[in-house]
User: Fold these one by one.
Assistant:
Number 1:
Amino acid sequence: MKSQITSAVKIQNRGFLIMEMMIAFSIMTLFLSSAVMLSATMQSLRMQAVKELENLERFTFAPVLSDYANAWGRDSCSASFFFNPKKTFLHSSGLNISSNPSTDLEVRNGIAYFTADSPVGSSPDFYIADMRDPESPFIISSINTGPGLSALEVAGRFIYAANSGTTNQLQIIDIADRHDPVLLSTLKLPLPHASSTAPAATAIFYSRGLVYLGTKKWEGNEFSIIDVSNPASPKYLGGFETGTLINDIYARDGYAYLAASDIAQMRILDVRDPSNITQLDSFSPSGWETQEGKVFSYFEGSLSLGRTPGGFNNSNNHEVFIFSSSSPHVMEYSRDIPGGVYGIVIRPPHAYLATRSTGREFQIWDNSLENLVFEKSLGFSPRALSCDRNNLYFATGDGKGVSALIIEK
């Protein structure tokens, strides 16, 4: 009898054990299935997020589809950017950067990053300023990187800056801590001869881990491509000799557009192989003998070019050009802008221009450049123009540093 009871207990225990194993197996299967589903869901969400960000970047009109770990792009206009002439207010920054004339800027969420080129070598040449309250802006931080900076690109936690000196042409600044920016690395362009004097850098563009750098005319390549996938150790990849000063660069889909100071005021280069760069086309408008290609802007496949005035104004020599969205080689619209164009933002139905027309430094035209919609005196000669959300910002070229044009709803 005892034996029978023992056997029954063993069978019962074995049944419980089998049931527990089945439950454990079911739980493990459920856990593994959940983990696989979670991983797939996370991957799907990640891909969806990247897609949405790319769509967002298209709608916010950034000039390049960038990878978001490394770039912000030049422009951060609101998708609902609009113009209200009755509610447009100019705010002089009052930042007071002394004798350091500002040279270039980009603005992100009301934070301005701008460069300066001071005659005093020990003065700061890079600034970060809080412009979120345009009536009470303030400098967050500044550093001195050397002889001065002529242009910059903001990409993630890094600033890529064109250096105005001859010691090095590229400087990379880490802005992970806005209150304590750090000069992370520099690069000097290769010299064609040991006795060559390196040039000052004058223009810069960033896209997808590459920096496109332009310089003044010298013995070597005025246009260079630099790998900055590791910002702590930039690597020179190749260059192209233009034989002239480069004032601005825009790069996209394997092509680079150069705003230059000689007869070819806009050059189009094939840069898909940095070790074998070739020129595909150029644009030579009338007036090139005294005028220079100065600044680019890009919107929805359409490229625009601004030029300097070239001294005495000739109405036949235009200062702003808009090229076809189907082909950047075909010029669609152009306009004479006395004083020259130093900044462009295209947002149909308007083209926003920073000019040096005295008393008319800010102008808005329809996007066919036929009709002047609005103009405003800025009280300074702008060096650069940046758009952030629904506001426009100018590098003033003087001790103010930055001024904001606030467009209120």
Number 2:
Amino acid sequence: MKKYDVATAALLAALANLAPAAAQAPAPRAGIWQGQVGTRRVVLTLRGDSSTLALPESGQPPAPLATLRTPGDSLVAIAKYGKPALRVRFADRGRVLSGTLSEYAKTLPVVLRPVAAVQPLRLAQAPSLPLPYRAEDVQFSSAGDSMRFGGTLTHPPGQGRVPAVVILSGTGPQTRNGAPGPNGHQPFEVLADYLTRRGFAVLRTDDRGVGQTSGRYDQATTADFARDGLAAVRYLRQRPDIDPARVGLLGHSEGGAAAMMAAAASPDVAFVVSLAGLLTPGLQALLFQNAELVRVAPISAREKQRYGELNDLMFRTAHHYAASPELEAQLRATYQTWKTQDDARLLADKVTNDHFRFPLDSYVRQATGPWYRYQVAFDPAPYFARVKVPVLALNGDRDLMVDYHGLAAAATALRQAGNRDVTTQVLPGLNHLLQPCHTCLTNEYNDLDTTLDPGVLRLVGDWLTRHTR
């Protein structure tokens, strides 16, 4: 699914007022102090009145400090630009600075230590070197649409043919490692590393229009991504180091739906693993996702009611006219009808300071594109009826993007169609990326240290081992 729909994207941003600027103060314990918050480094350089604060993953240069105060053994540093703020205290006999980083509406714990020079980012679950397996950059083509794919194939050591897993990503253009860009968590790299160490070859590719893969992502639908998965399966089945009878698909989010579609279309797919997979009709999924985002948004009850009402109307209109050239006109008419009624309510309630904003033009552009038209009308039932291979489906119960309640209905549909090997599990405390979470909002993903819950890795590895013997 989309990380969030443009109709409610504006709800997720909030700014916090930080302390005002103050006079510079001499910096104690001069030098570079570095820590990390999730997937971002925090670098405080103390050099008297030329001290700086930097968050290198933001892509911005180090910012001079507007405030540097050192009362007692504590330290307050507030950047002049962007105004991230550190409020920390010297601990462990002055060997660490421990406290919080505040940025926009978030305040997160951080520990900084002295370093001789700024150190590279290190994620807790990043593959440790040297790798005990072969990692090979590969390219292959699909038959029929001239697509060219680039990716990484990791292969366990030793001779002979091994089982293989193709990873399919969720919504939004992503690199082969499962991220929109070089920064942030790289879940597919972590997953491939774990499974390859357990004896599986794993192929992860760049999405369409990303990295070494050709095509245009904005013109593709879930059906295209299913065909991409089958192209990867065919490529692996032709390799002499892969067992052609043991090649399957693992999909995250929308990739879970694409994996089911591919398995329904071809006997070449030996198994399906769905992680936080989209297993419900598209309209139902969009309604759930946006209802959850509205529910947790930092806005008033009245604003939540208005967004919820309008989103429901717009999504149902998009669903009804998904295949029609009248879609844009109908969306604009639906919005205008709602706005006329809403304006009358505001007038009757004597509301004079209204901050409600719906990004109509952005939503219309999105909704009239090929992906949205396909997605809002998507029905997984016909595909469930044709999937006869073993299926594992795992969803977190704190997922705001995909409703985990869809697991039960999907399992029932698969079994009623004759599939006798279906395993589903709801995982407590995990978000859409299957991380242990606190707020579980999309803007928390990269603040968390965990890339992919280790329990999920074990569940997938154990299930694959049993089903590929």
